[in-house]
Amino acid sequence: MLENLNYGLFNLINATPASPEWGIRLAIFIAKDLITIVPALVVILWLWGPRRQVAAQRQLVIKIAMALAISLLASWLLGHLFPHDRPFVDHVGYNFLHHAADDSFPSDHGTVIFTFALAFLFWHRVWSGILLMMVACTIAWSRVYLGVHWPMDMLGGMMVGLLGCLSAQILWNVCGNALYQRLSQLYRICFALPIRKGWIRD
Predict the structure, then answer these.
(1) Cβ proximity of 115 and 42 under 8 Å
(2) Do the Cβ atoms of 13 and 141 come closer than 8 Å?
(3) How many domains does the chain fold into?
(4) Is residue 93 part of a domain?
(5) Do the Cβ atoms of 102 and 191 come closer than 8 Å?
(6) Mean pLDDT for back-to-back runs of 10 residues, the chain (202 residues)
(7) % helix, strand, coil for the chain, step of 5
(8) 50 is a domain residue
(9) Is the dihedral of CA 185, 191, 194, 196 positive or negative?
(10) Model pTM score
């Protein structure tokens, strides 16, 4: 039944040769490039911001890193334990994005962007989490639309992201403050010159 739902949703979303070329190009940009928002925001949050908020921002970055590490490990394990072919490997629908014929479940892109969105929803602001969740859903849609993933691959990525965030919170409660202090010291040593110049925050 779940597999039938997966196929049904895929056929509803997947583009066809009759789909507009501009829609295909937009989806390719979303599928390949929009995820760069993750490293960009992480760097910005660590290096800049109001002085009174920098500590909270850096703690958020560390939590995100922990959650991503856990969720990507879980994604890798699930991919090996429950291998699932991509739609174009099964000759289902249409493919408009070149991709290796590796396992599709859960989606790595989905895992990363949903982990990131959930992290902001849990640890930053509701509005920022909702905004990033909209970005995550858009990326998920684009990769199904282009034929490189099944809808359930994206749902799996979201579930793994939730697991990553919950696990990261548990680890943070155990060793978060000590980890933050150590990484802050290492940062001040490695980036002493730009900190002195005032280019980035202490």
Answers:
(1) no
(2) yes
(3) 1
(4) yes
(5) no
(6) 86 94 96 94 94 94 97 95 88 90 90 97 94 97 96 96 97 95 95 93 90
(7) 75, 0, 25
(8) yes
(9) positive
(10) 0.94
State the number of CA atoms in the 13 A half-sphere of 189 facing the CB. 6
Residue type, 106: P
Residue span of the structural domain in which 132 resides: 21-197
Classify the C-alpha dihedral 54-59-65-67 as positive or negative: negative
**Could you tell me which residues come within 8 angstroms of residue 103 by beta carbon, excluding any fewer than 6 positions away?**
79, 80, 83, 84, 85, 86
Q: Measured between alpha carbons, how far is 190 from 201 in angstroms, rounded to an integer?
A: 13
| Tally of residues, the chain | 202
For residue 181, tell me if it sits in a domain.
Answer: yes
Query: The domain spanning residue 57 has which CATH number?
Result: 1.20.144.10
Q: State the residue for tokens 């490990």.
A: 73
Query: Can you tell me the distance from the alpha carbon of 64 to that of 43, in angstroms, rounded to the nearest whole number?
Result: 12
Q: Which amino acid is at 190?
A: C
The answer to the question of residue 10 being in a domain is no
